[in-house]
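Schema walk-through. Below, the input block comes first and the output block second. Nothing else is stored per chain. Lengths vary across the set, and this one has 133 residues.
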Amino acid sequence: MSRYVYLERADGSVLPVRARRCDTFFCRLRGLMLRRRLAPAEGLLFVEDGESRMGASIHMLFVFFPIAVIWLQEDGTVVDKVLARPFHPFYAPQAPARYYLEADPALLDVVEVGERLTLTDAGALDPADFDIR
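--- output ---
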């Protein structure tokens, strides 16, 4: 799988974010810390070894801007979403999750808890086919 993915709905529509897979220790350790901003169509998709509430928890220390956080189970079901604020010490999903997406806060308006998303290799889609603004 490519380093970048899109998240696709059951109806074939694609969420307006291109996410970089964050599945290594160092990528998960760094996350968005010390960055000054995140582009509107940019995100990080964190991949944990298994489903867990604690393993999928995050902090916002040294993150200087608010972000949307969307937690997904192994099968892609959205189990929680939250607007994470700068320097907040702890956020955890309401249910165990294997993946969590950190992206522009506007994403919270287009994703619903309970919907199922599929990870699609970014190489399989042409960004010109849809609006990712």
